[in-house]
């Protein structure tokens, strides 16, 4: 075989001149392509259709481009010198929530004595916005739906604490919305086929788009109004939240109302599905085939990026009394609170693809009787809080080894909180009425390594009686009740 030997960069090619000329030409073309790619990156251009480009590379370039765009007067060179950061810092900046106050709170009524309104005092004491509260609506299938925006289009999805992604259907729907071509563009991720507990999606295409939630300042929304009497004057009034602002109700000054706010997450990766269909055992339609707003944050490396992973949201709360969702950039459960606060268990080492919001179960009771395995082999049982489920999903081995298989009219689990106290979490056909739907059905749990465990996915029927669900994701704590 004829070979081409190039001992040094300046040595002539002595054999097969045509081959050597071709190699030199290829090297020149490669240099020009690389130089052109560097210039495009410097201009803020990212070829997101290139399948080899990762989310990390995109975020790194995005944060610099965003910083350049936000410089008010400086030139590009000065801006680049100011905002170029190490990769880790760029990734943190790219996850930062863009907060927008849509309107200021107005005051109705007269101003108190001294000419200073309680609203002005309150606004001066208010901390920076760290959370947003948005309304959620219970649909006919018995699950909660939240409304938000992708690009400039209003869409809806099922609020699911058991799923990791935001997904939308490719086809238009009066219920879920209709994405336009300009609302999103291709990412560098290959298409996938996603399967959930009771739903499987068709081909899922991973795209990038701006996701925005509109609501009110979550901190003000959670402040209670407590009636009290001013001991110095004997007048009756209200104390607004933790700020300690006293308002004399003899005047007509009102406590400040929550401020309209937007949380925006730019260039967020989400899935667009060709179709959604219910799996065996699902109810068809509704929860079994719908786009999701998944609130599971952490995952295994082979899973696509989750919604919350791409943000700086650390905690969330579902309020079933007010039908509200709160997304927070700080913890919502006080660190000093131990009662009825349960430590989360990461099931990923046992085969789960994501960090479900799961707790270890001490005892499982079904129809008034405690579950005991038929073969006498005791396996650990875990319970996952899953708002995408109305009743309860039970792993098949547990379902057919217990009273679940004969029909269930009552079930509860006993879980120890951080104080070591055993707490009961359950529901029954007698207490689960009105909007509550209780049904226990078996489900395949196809996690490799989970064969020696049992799992329950506890749905809304198990949470309604507590009034809410609050999860401090980064602190790995959960409590049932309002934040």
Q: Identify low-pLDDT runs.
A: 1-15, 37-87, 104-126, 225-254, 279-288
Sheet of most strands? 16 strands, mixed
Distance between the termini: 76 Å
- Give me the Rg, rounded: 28 Å
Number of strands: 28
Indicate the proportion of strand residues.
Answer: 25-35%
Specify the structural class: alpha+beta
Helix segment tally: 8
Helix content, binned percent: 10-25%
Give the overall silhouette: globular
Mean pLDDT: 74
- State the oligomer: single chain
What does this 3D model show about the protein?
The protein is an alpha+beta fold. Helix content is 16%, strand content 32%. It contains eight helices and 28 strands. It has a 16-stranded mixed β-sheet that branches. A five-stranded mixed β-sheet has the order 18-21-26-22-25. A four-stranded antiparallel β-sheet has the order 20-19-23-24. The radius of gyration is 28 Å and the shape is globular.
Outline the secondary-structure elements:
Layout: H1 17-42, H2 55-69, H3 76-83, H4 87-95, E1 98-101, H5 118-125, E2 131-138, E3 144-150, E4 153-160, E5 167-169, E6 185-186, E7 192-195, E8 199-217, H6 218-221, E9 225-229, E10 236-240, E11 245-248, E12 260-273, E13 276-278, E14 292-294, E15 315-319, E16 324-328, E17 341-343, E18 358-361, E19 363-366, E20 369-370, E21 381-385, E22 392-395, H7 396-399, E23 410-416, E24 422-428, E25 440-443, E26 454-458, H8 460-463, E27 468-472, E28 477-480
């Amino acid at each position: 075989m004829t070979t081409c030997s190039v001992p040094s960069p300046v040595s002539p090619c002595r054999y097969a001149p045509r081959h050597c000329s071709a190699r030199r030409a290829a090297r020149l073309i490669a240099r020009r392509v690389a130089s052109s790619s560097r210039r495009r990156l410097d201009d803020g251009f990212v070829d997101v259709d290139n399948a080899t480009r990762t989310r990390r590379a995109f975020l790194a370039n995005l944060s610099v481009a965003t910083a350049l765009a936000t410089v008010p007067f400086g030139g590009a060179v000065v801006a680049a010198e100011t905002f170029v950061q190490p990769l880790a810092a760029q990734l943190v900046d790219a996850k930062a929530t863009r907060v927008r106050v849509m309107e200021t709170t107005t005051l109705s009524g007269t101003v108190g004595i001294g000419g200073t309104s309680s609203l002005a005092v309150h606004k001066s004491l208010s901390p920076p916005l760290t959370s947003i509260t948005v309304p959620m609506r219970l649909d006919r299938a018995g699950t909660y739906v939240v409304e938000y925006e992708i690009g400039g289009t209003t869409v809806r999805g099922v609020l699911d604490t058991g799923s990791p992604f935001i997904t939308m259907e490719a086809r238009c729907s009066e219920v879920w919305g209709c994405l336009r071509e300009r609302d999103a563009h291709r990412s560098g991720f290959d298409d996938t086929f996603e399967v959930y507990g009771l739903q499987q999606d068709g081909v899922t295409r991973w795209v990038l788009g701006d996701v925005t939630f509109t609501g009110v300042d979550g901190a003000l929304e959670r402040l209670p109004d407590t009636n009290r009497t001013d001991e110095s004057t004997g007048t009756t009034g209200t104390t607004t939240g933790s700020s300690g602002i006293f308002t004399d109700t003899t005047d007509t000054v009102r406590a400040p109302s929550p401020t309209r706010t937007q949380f925006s997450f730019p260039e967020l990766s989400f899935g667009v599905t060709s179709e959604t269909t219910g799996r065996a055992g699902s109810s068809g339609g509704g929860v079994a085939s719908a786009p999701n707003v998944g609130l599971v944050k952490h995952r295994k490396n082979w899973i696509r990026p989750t919604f919350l992973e791409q943000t700086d949201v650390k905690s969330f709360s579902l309020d079933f009394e007010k039908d509200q969702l709160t997304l927070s950039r700080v913890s919502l459960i006080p660190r000093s609170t131990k009662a009825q606060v349960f430590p989360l268990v990461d099931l990923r080492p046992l085969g789960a693809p994501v960090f479900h919001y799961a707790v270890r179960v001490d005892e499982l009771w079904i129809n008034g009787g405690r579950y005991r395995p038929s073969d006498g082999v005791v396996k650990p049982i875990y319970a996952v809080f899953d708002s995408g489920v109305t009743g309860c999903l039970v792993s098949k081995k547990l379902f057919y080894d217990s009273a679940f298989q004969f029909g269930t009219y009552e079930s509860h689990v006993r879980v120890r909180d951080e104080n070591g106290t055993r707490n009961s979490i359950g529901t029954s056909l007698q207490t689960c009425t009105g909007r509550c739907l209780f049904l226990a059905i078996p489900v395949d749990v196809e996690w490799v390594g989970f064969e020696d465990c049992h799992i329950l996915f506890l749905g809304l029927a198990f949470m309604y009686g507590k009034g809410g669900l609050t999860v401090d994701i980064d602190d790995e704590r959960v409590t049932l009740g309002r934040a």
